[in-house]
Amino acid sequence: MTSIFDDIRNAFRLRNALNQLILINVIVFVVLLLLRVILRISTHSDALFETILEYIAMPANPGVLLTRPWTIFTYFFTHREFFHIIFNMLNLYWFGMIIREYLGDKKLVSLYILGGLAGGLFFLLFYNLIPYYQPRAVYATMIGASASTLAVTVAAATLLPNFQFNLLFIGPVKIKYIAAFFVLLSISGAIGDNAGGNLAHLGGAFIGFLFIKQLQRGTDLGRPIHAVGNFFRNIFKPRTPLKVTYKNQSRTSTYTTSGSGEPSQTEIDLILDKISKSGYESLSKEEKQKLFRASQKKD
Known about the structure:
With about 300 residues, the protein is mainly alpha-helical. It is built from 14 helices and 4 strands.
């Protein structure tokens, strides 16, 4: 058991956002699974477990949501069914690798969180503004990372539309077609039993597309997410003793970038212009690496 906790601790120390997102989802799933088993054995009922689940699932009822505002975040880390989390985590892993490779860890985290928030917003708006859904808004709730994972999927397809995956029994398929299939599947399910979940998927898909298009124009929609993350990171970060120096050499070295290998802003602007005109596929390996280093530096 100690080795398991050590593995979890090490996973968070390695600063791999993709593995960390998957691990958080798995930990929450396992905790809920064990809790459900324990409560079923001790109470012979799922009633208490369902009550607990209500406090981490996002409600469609705005009045209830106001009393549980944290659920807009907790819902997209929560799964109840085994196949639900497996499907979501596989998609997150496959398409998240692309986002992480080209844009870095923080962009991936931003996409995941923004996708979840957009999915929750779509769920809330549709269920309270569209007459077809309004009767369900009183009792409907939502859990699952599908909106977040579809945001990552559509973002990867927008970033590299002609990138291919080798699918079992099918062969190579461009990811733009895979993403389109998931979006169409969500549209068709928007009038089914899981209408709320599928509406949330569409919110995630929308933000995934918008995120990449804005990034290609030089606007990072994830900056507010980074700012909040940095705020809390600085709160819990151990403070180091303040060291003051008056040497001119030290001050100069603080601001110089010569020899660091970091691309200049002019280089980044030229690369972004090239992406806007010809897409990511037109970039050379060196240009992709420069863009990645710049994203790490700015974040």
